[in-house]
Design brief:
Layout (H helix, E strand, L loop, with lengths): L4 E5 L5 H18 L5 H11 L5 E6 L2 E11 L2 E9 L8 H16 L3 E6 L4 H7 L3 E5 L3 E6 L6 H11 L4 E5 L6 H8 L7 E9 L6 E8 L6 H7 L4 E4 L2 H8 L15 E5 L8 E8 L2 E6 H8 L2 E2 L7
Parallel strand pairs: 4-5, 10-12, 12-15
Antiparallel strand pairs: 1-2, 2-3, 3-4, 5-7, 6-7, 8-14, 9-10, 9-11, 13-14
Helix pairs in contact: 1-2, 3-5
Amino acid sequence: MDALWSFAPATEADFAPLLALRHAVMGPQLERLGRLDPARSRARFRESFDTSRMRLIRIRDETIGCVALTPVQHALCLANFLLNPLRHNDGIGSAILRALLAEADVAGLPVELEVLKESPAIRLYQRHGFVATGEGPWDIVCRRPPNPPTTFDRVLAALSSGQARHRVIEHEPEGRSEAISLIRGNRPDQAAKAMVLDVRGGGGGRRHVLAILPGNRQLDFAKVAAVFAARKCGFASPETAQALTGCVMGAVPPFAFSDALSLVVDPDLLTNDTIFFNAGRLDRSMEADTRDWLRIAAPRIEPVAASA
C-alpha cells in the first residue's frame, strides 16, 4: 500500500455519503442473512453516528471510508469500520486496523467489536489477534486484549491519533541511513537520521538530546552544544540510547517519548514534503507528511547539521 493515508474528523454532512457506503459494504452480507432492510439500517447508523468519535479515512483528498473507536467501560469499542469496496484487499484495511490497535495498546485497553457472521472481515480481525467471546443470531462478538506497546506502536499511535498522513513500509532489517534509503527508494536527504546525544556543562548538568537531520548530512556537535548552552556534546552510550528510546540504534524514530530526551531538528530536513524514517524497528519504516510530523513531534528547529 503505497499511498499515504490519514484520519480526519467527520461532520454531519458526512452522514449521507457514509450511509451510502454502509449500504454498499454491508448490503450484500445482510441480504444473504435475510436481514436487508434499508430503513432499519439507516436508523441503526443514525443512532451510532457520533461526530465526536467518527473518523473519516482519507487518501489524498478522497474519503475512502470511516471508523469509530469509542471508550466504553474498561475497553474501546471499534464500530462502523467501512471501506470503499474498491479498496478492499489492497492492504489499507490492515494498515488502519493496525494503527487503531496501536492506539489501544498505548492506552492499555482491550478492543471489542461485533461483526456479521457473513462478513469477510472476520479473517482480518482474527489475523490481528481478535478472538470470539460470544455470538447472537446474526453477529459474532470479538475481543482483543492489549499488548505492551513498543516504540513502533507509540510512533504509529501518535501519527494515527494526530491525523497525520503516513504509511508503514515493511522491509528487510537495516538501520544504516544510506542503505535503508536505497531499500525504501527515498532520496538520502529525505531520511530523518536520529542521533541520541549526551550534552553536559554550562550549568545544566548532563542532559540528553535526540537530534534529527537529513540522512546525507553529518552532525555538528559544537552547534548542538551551543543550542543547549552546554560545554560538551557527544554520542550517548548505546545502553543509554536504548533506555531512552526503547529501541536499538539504527531504529530510532524522530520522536521523543521520554521526558528526559529533548528533540531538535535541523531545518534543512523540513524542506521535504515528506520524510522517511525507521520506526522503532529495523524492519519497519514510515513515510510521513513533514508538516504533520512537525506538528505532532513538536521539536526545536535549530541548525545542528554540519555545513554541506
